[in-house]
Design brief:
Number of strands: 0
Number of domains: 2
CATH architecture of the largest domain: Orthogonal Bundle
Length: about 290
Amino acid sequence: MSSDGDTVARARLFNLRITPVGMARGLLYLVLIAGAALALVPFVWMVSTSLKRLPEVARWPIQWIPSDPQWQNYATVFSHVPFLRFYANTAFVTLLRTSGLLVTSCMAGYAFARLRFPGRDAIFLIYLGTMMVPGQVTLIPRFITMRLLTWIDTYQALIVPGVFSAFGVFLMRQFFMGIPRSLDDAAILDGANHFDIFRRVCVPLSTPAIATLIIFAFVGSWNDFLWPLVITNSVEKLVLSVGLSHFQDLYYTEWTLLMAASVMAMAPVLAIYVLAQRYFVQGIALTGIKG
């Protein structure tokens, strides 16, 4: 009897595996795995190169696993350039830019989602339209503004223009609109004003959207290259994205040191994404269904 039951179970399992839905799902998983593996190739090459000697970099076929890993390449980075200074500048600028962008986006998003004032929707559409303007178009006006403020080659110039984001306002506005207004009414009955509702009701309920905004802001600021390149001209103010160019000369590139520095520069971005991944996915999913 037990044998017959096992046979039926195997038959059902076999039939389940060969259904069109099961085959499509299996094919989808294979495509996703292949895509993920392909996306990882540059990162594997970067880590591998960071542990090689310079003559081994151009060797063909590629030697993915170095026979004699050169761990000292990572230590050499710090003696080759002021890498700690670049790292500290990037961390400082990114922390302040992300914090400022979070505050401005949350407050503006709340105003557009919960307050009623003349021209609110028109102002929001105009503000949203700035997302269509490439950053390169506003590069010269921003530079002129910084020059008039005498902020060239200062931390203010690196931080202040980055604390405002139309995308951040849009993201938070969409999320705040999904919070039931009955919570606002209940808070008003308890004597709360708009600032209390914003601070005690809307913000605590918006953790997924805030985490998503933090990831976007952090990664965008950490990897920002064009604006720091234009606005800074002293080594003391350089950030990582610009400082990495010190490993490259007109006729010669220290590929092993450049890749070692790139691995260390990428670590914080990878860490914050891994730590906030659950909130990131949840924030994108919930924000997309709110109108």
